[in-house]
Amino acid sequence: MKTTSKSIKTLFKPYLTVKNGYKGGRGISQKKEGQKVYKLSSNENPIGTSPFALKAIKNSLSDLHLYPDTTDIRLREALEVYYKQQLLKEQFICAASGSEIIDLIIRAFVREEDEVIISTPCFVPYKMFSCWSGATVVDVPLFENDYSLNVEGILKSVSEKTRIIFLTSPNNPTGSYISKEELEYLLNELPQDVVVVFDEVYWHFANTDDYTTALPYISNYPNLIAINSFSKTYGLASLRVGYAYMNEEVAAYLRQICKPFLITKLSLEGAIASLKDANFIKETIETIHSEKSFLKVEYNKLGIKFYPTQANFYLINPPIPSNEFVQFLAGEGIAVRPVDNFGANGKVRITIGTREANIALIKALNKLKLISLN
Ligand SMILES: Cc1ncc(COP(=O)(O)O)c(C=O)c1O
């Protein structure tokens, strides 16, 4: 090897050396003997996985030595049917998770000199992956009182350099949403060369009248991209599958950088089958809605301050410092998520679980209240 005074480190891109690693929702690492553990830290499906998906996955196990489909075309065809031909297969792109889709969109549109607008508290990868591209992240925080979107603030922050605006509805970790009126206003006011990423991975759980997905606006706004995931409603978090829909031309552009064989055989078969499982989707949504009502009553009885939610989790103000709160619940076998790194300092996000998990949570919160009173 030739000697030189230059180190390999001179090749490192400075913006890739900044530590901003994503920490996933933890389980309970120190489980007590015989203790039942409830994971309410990652907004997973409380009733499990679609039985249709499980059957399809089992049927595919004998094919693991073979490469999967080169492309996502079969999943896109299944999505066209799921959306009742309101969207065509050419309008979708699929990838190994919603997070991967976020990364793909950023790689496709963002250069080092560009700006990306986010509204914290929000899903960490928007900022993390934008920083990986060397772009400048401009934060227009949600309003603190109710976590609604600062629509005018976003419009004022748009510059010549703005490439992407991330909008999330329902939003993680706040559970707040963007109304139809707000979205329509933004879409009309924003320049056409700014990509609006509308992340709707929790859309199945929203039940307020003025909620909307991006679907009604896709044909009129070629700069609009909607992100979805199979991790939540379909109970396939472990298989990592997601998709996005948009204008056909933009989809064809993004597909250029979709890697071949990106989606595994099991993920592809599981996702396609789950789209047909209307009963499982219905049961999942009903469980979330009834457990959401149950928790609302119990949180009120306990005097826990929580934010209204359109998703499958609640953001709460813990009664004691959040790190102590999370540790206390971990000791009771319940994993919940501190969300300081999302931009919600001192708050904790708790997934809506099964009735059994929710009762365990309420019991633990009652215990904490008694300890605090003594
Ligand atoms: C708002 C939001 N978008 C996207 C995702 C990505 O989901 P996944 O990567 O599991 O498909 C999540 C996951 O928690 C999320 O909360």
Question: Main traits of this protein?
Answer:
single chain; 374 residues; alpha/beta; Aspartate Aminotransferase, domain 1; Aspartate Aminotransferase, domain 2; 2 domains; 7-stranded mixed β-sheet; 4-stranded antiparallel β-sheet; 13 strands; binds pyridoxal-5'-phosphate
Protein model, in words:
- Helices cover 35% and strands 14% of the residues.
- The chain has helices spanning 51-60, 73-82, 98-109, 125-132, 151-157, 180-189, 248-255, 265-275, 278-302, 322-331, 355-373; strands at 38-39, 92-95, 115-118, 136-139, 162-168, 195-199, 224-229, 242-245, 305-306, 313-317, 334-335, 337-338, 348-351.
- Strands 2-8-7-6-5-3-4 form a 7-stranded mixed β-sheet, with helices on both faces. A 4-stranded antiparallel β-sheet has the order 9-10-13-12, covered by helices on one side. The protein has a two-stranded parallel ribbon with strand order 1-11.
- The protein is built from 11 helices and 13 strands.
- The protein has 2 domains: 23-48 and 279-373, Aspartate Aminotransferase, domain 1 (Alpha-Beta Complex); 51-276, Type I PLP-dependent aspartate aminotransferase-like (Major domain) (Aspartate Aminotransferase, domain 2, 3-Layer(aba) Sandwich), CATH 3.40.640.10.
- The protein is globular, with a radius of gyration of 22 Å.
- Pyridoxal-5'-phosphate (PLP) is lined by residues 43, 97-99, 123, 168, 172, 199, 201, 229, 231, 237, 242.
